[in-house]
Amino acid sequence: MVSPQQPLTTRLAGFGASVFAEMTALAIQTGSINLGQGFPDYNGPDEVLTAAQSEIASGNNQYPPGIGQQDLRAAISEHQKRFWGLSYDPESEVLVTMGATEALAGALLGILNAGDEVVVFEPLFDTYAGCVALADAVLSPVTLRPQSTGRYGFDADELRRAITSRTRVILLNSPHNPTGMVFNKDELQMVADIAQEHDLIVVSDEVYEHLLFDDARHIPIASLPGMRERTITISSAGKTFNTTGWKIGWACAPSHLLHAIRMAKQLFTFAGGTPFQSAIAAGLRLPDSYFQQLAKDLQSKRDILMAALQTAHLNPIRPEGTYFITADIRDRWPHGDAMDFCRALPEACGVVAIPGSVLYDQRHADEGRHLVRFAFCKQTSTMQAAAKKLTEWA
Ligand code: PMP
Ligand code: GLN
């Protein structure tokens, strides 16, 4: 009989239950407004929803090809060209995955050997640390910190020091969850120079590629000279079409890199989401106005939340993109940490947020003790109700 004690692999020892699930459960239990887990509370475009419905009704419900349906691969390739000027062959350089999560897992488990090091900017999305641990590889975090300019940034020397002879991958995320930082050309060039100098692979998570505010501009690192050949670019339909529950994502890379992801991915889900794949192909072909309006609407929600957090003395840092604002709670919560704050906030004010502290490497836990993440990808009425609760609590 299998012992009931300690069935969990030692690779995952030290990982707790997902904080996203905990905070969503807390929102339901307390009837609070959920600004925790990053998912919209409104539907995506009708063209995408009705395309999925008609695919299901017409019987397109069996396994798709392992690499993904041809129409979606073609649409992804067209999208990369239309928005970012990047060319990928839909037959050999595009892979459809079950969300960006599977593309990330496939890339990391398909590439890394035990003991390899992965340089990543923290705070970081929790999947990254989990996949690096499952690969028996080592996370080497470089911390993003608010700068005097009011945006986040990193120290170039700290990045250089993080590289060792064991470094194999730089895992980049821009626009960045949770800070909302959009890496600018100079910052990306620094990463690109280091990747080329040390012959590293860059895994670039660009799921928030269309969610940009003010004059922020998304630059895929694969578009910098010499980078396409060493970069795996990952994205997801979840954020662009408000379909986070469909889990349709993709990876674009030169065929030798894509092969590594495919080898791993075929062992996880093999393939899935057939009717949703065709619907996302329709979404990716929507006119530019759809993508512009998406960002514009989200920016107005960001502004509602920024104002409320300022009034509540929670010192928000203005995001340049994504679904999220990070706030420094020290003025309001001088003696506790972000986790206590997030456990207390629903009772105190009827709003749920995510403690940023859990998104740091354990060795750097102090960096995020005072950081809380609020999501604003909710209907305007939800954001106004949350803003009212936060300002009344102020
Ligand atoms: N990367 C980042 C930075 C994210 O915030 C998320 C959250 N959804 C994902 C990847 C996962 O995307 P998906 O839901 O498509 O798996
Ligand atoms: N990416 C979303 C977030 O950061 C969802 C994460 C999750 O549910 N695992 O909130």
From TrEMBL:
Signal peptide: none annotated. It holds the Pfam family Aminotran_1_2. One of its GO terms (molecular function) is pyridoxal phosphate binding. Residues 33-388 form the Aminotransferase class I/classII large domain. InterPro entries: Aminotransferase_I/II_large, Kynurenine-oxoglutarate_AT, PyrdxlP-dep_Trfase, PyrdxlP-dep_Trfase_major, PyrdxlP-dep_Trfase_small. The keyword Ubl conjugation does not apply. Its cofactor is pyridoxal 5'-phosphate. CDD domains: AAT_like (cd00609). The keyword Chloroplast does not apply. Keywords: Aminotransferase, Pyridoxal phosphate, Transferase. One of its GO terms (cellular component) is cytoplasm. Belongs to the class-I pyridoxal-phosphate-dependent aminotransferase family. This is Unannotated protein. It comes from freshwater metagenome.
